[in-house]
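Researcher: Final request for today, and then I'll write up notes for the group meeting. The sequence and the SMILES for zinc ion follow.
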Amino acid sequence: MKPDIAHLCAFFIAIAPIATACEQGVAPGPAEPVATPDESSRDKSQKDRADHGAGEEVEIQTVPVAGNIYMLIGRGGNIGVSVGGDGILIIDDQFAPLADKIRAALGALSKGDLQYVLNTHHHGDHVGGNAVFGKEATIIAHDNVRKNLAGKPAEVLPVVTFDKTLTVHFNGEAIRAVHFASGHTDGDSIIFFDKSNVVHMGDHFFNGRFPYVDLGNGGNPAGLEENIRTVLGLVKSDTKIIPGHGPLATRDDLVAYHQMLIETVAVIRGQIKQGKNLAAIQKQGLPAKWKSWGEGFISTEKWIETIYNSSTAGK
Ligand SMILES: [Zn+2]
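Model: Predicted protein-zinc ion complex:
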């Protein structure tokens, strides 16, 4: 089954200061991605888990990020939360069957109402909760997220969409969604909380793991690397970074991920130039220092295949 979307990138300018000193490192968190729509690469049991979204066993873990910003880890993409006098805004909403648990976790943080849901992109493990929360809050996303969700029930669809950037003035700060094309999908946004010094990366960032890149919907490993390079130019040394999957991160974690992208793309492209086919490259594998990166949702073989397919397609 083919997922949907497409897209483009916005350029923007100087991003404001995100603030200071260095971080503490990172909460543990078992947030392995469970559901991207790349059905062909998953076995049936994985699919079932993704489709049903939430077993009884799933617990929502609340991680303080900075000030009034939190991260919820459950199943699927990490949720960003802003709470305050204006109410609650969340970034992504995992799966509909988890909605009650997500609501309980939000209720423990604030008595306010959920006002906005920002979707970073259209994949099911990031927008599944729209089916519930879309009835009570305004969903916001890039134009291509709505396009890629075409045909879904109205409450699932973003009501407010944008092309390049959009700012929500909420809980005392400007929460900026900026479109980054050609990385993970064609409709991805990265969300900047400048005052709180927090960034939610969506699936541009799998912390410590090879990423899922949705080639069928405009994703591209080389574009992903460029986008991460851009973001690294915008964040500060002590910015708290919420990844799409994996534990809360620091700028240093994002630097390590960026280096992985640069080096693994270069290795695979070098082997393609030598005339090797996919099977030969997969047999050779990647340098040992990247071994643990293939222990998540995307194996080393799958990551090699993704780079190979995009590179041989001339992207
Ligand atoms: Zn995704």
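Model: The chain has one domain: 39-263. The first helix runs from residue 44 to 52.
Researcher: Thanks, that's everything.
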